[in-house]
Amino acid sequence: MKYINYIIFVLLIWGCTTKEDVSPEVVKPLVGTWRVAAYEKTVNDEMEWVELPIENTYKLQFREDGVVLDEAGLPICCGPSALRINGTLFQIKPATSLPDNPTCQLVNCAICEVWDITLNQGGQEFIFECPSLGSSHKTRYVRSN
Known about the structure:
There is one protein chain. It is built from 1 helix and 9 strands. The chain is mainly beta. The chain has one domain. Strands 1, 2, 3, 4, 5, 6, 7, 8 and 9 form a 9-stranded mixed β-sheet that branches. Strand 1 (32-43) and strand 2 (46-51) form a beta hairpin. It is globular and about 45 Å long.
């Protein structure tokens, strides 16, 4: 009897779970080109932002399907499989096939599967963090023209 109750319980739980696809609208505010503006650094046991000059900063591009590209339009090395944008998880599913990025052969990845992105209300700035790498350091990006 206990075995039957267990099976019924598992079937109920399994039947009640639904996989919801997140709307692509979640990614729309990120679409475009962004540049690194600052990074967080520990100084005297406190975190502070270190601003970077506009020239020669690293840039990223986000496509509408969530794919992250470099300045040359190639997929970034060690890119994420998902984005958590303001708390909403968005699985990246490339809409088109991606070309190989030859520089990735030279990179040893410390993979961050899910990028935590906190996008500000105006959509002109976001904070990037990767908690799975065990670091609480953050990077601030701003829209690039």
